[in-house]
Amino acid sequence: CDHAGHEVPPEWDALGLAPARLGEHIAWDIGAAKVTRRLAALLGAPALLSRYSRLFIDCNRALGSENSIPAASDGVTVPGNAGLDAAERRRRADIAYHPYHRAMRELLDSLSDPMVIAMHSCTPVFGGAQRPWHVGVLWSRDVASARRVIGALAEDKSLTVGDNQPYSVLEAPGYTVAEILAPRNLRHVIVEIRQDQIAADAGAEAWALRLAAIFIREFALVAATKESRR
Fold first, then answer.
1. Please, which residues bridge with residue 49 across strands?
2. Does 226 score more than 70 pLDDT?
């Protein structure tokens, strides 16, 4: 769960934002951590969660890329991210980025033929546009796994399921999948649940149960119970 948390170390003074901003979707994937933890428990699987805000540094973007440390998000300017020098960027990466990806590589190396679920959530409205999908399944190389999950979700006629929506990984691949999972040729699927579905505990629980049933049925996932939080 690349965007599980919204922490900013105290010395960065909330990046110049009102502290309440760090609880909004610009700072993290609302509800994704709750679903991840519960899904991991249901599957008996390890879970890896980043606790730092993507505004501090985005663990799903390549270092040095435009959105690695965004100057603005969904129209909100981030004062503490303006005009950063290379030393400041390295400092943030050493605190939040490298430990997370090092833990991810170590975890993947410890497992035999893992199936990786990349868990995200998306805001119902972005850039003024409504998102009608209750959930999206994103894919690039591992089309087969994505198709199985999309098909299973689509059996529930009350759901609107996005196929590489609300955005396409083919057009904007995230770092975790493109640079860590794909080169290892690991089975993987990226799940984006709309945040209004999982912001409350009951919704997160319902989605974890739904996804657990699908992954058990479609992939027969089995793993040792372990949670790692970086």
1. 229
2. no
Give one word for 113, left, alpha or beta, with left for phi > 0 and alpha for psi -120 to 50: left
List alpha helices for 44-97, DSSP H: 86-92
Predicted pLDDT at 149 = 97
CB 33 within 8 A of CB 1: yes
Q: Is 226 exposed, middle or buried (0-12, 13-18, 19+ CB in 10 A)?
A: middle
Contact 80, 13 (CB under 8 A): yes
Q: If you compute the radius of gyration of the chain from its CA atoms, what whole number of angstroms results? A: 17
pLDDT in tens, 68-112: 999 999 999 999 999 999 999 999 999 999 999 999 999 999 999
Burial 113-131 (b: 16+ CB within 10 A, else e): ebbbbbbbbbbeeeeeeeb
Angle at 135 between CA 133 and CA 141, to 5 degrees: 110
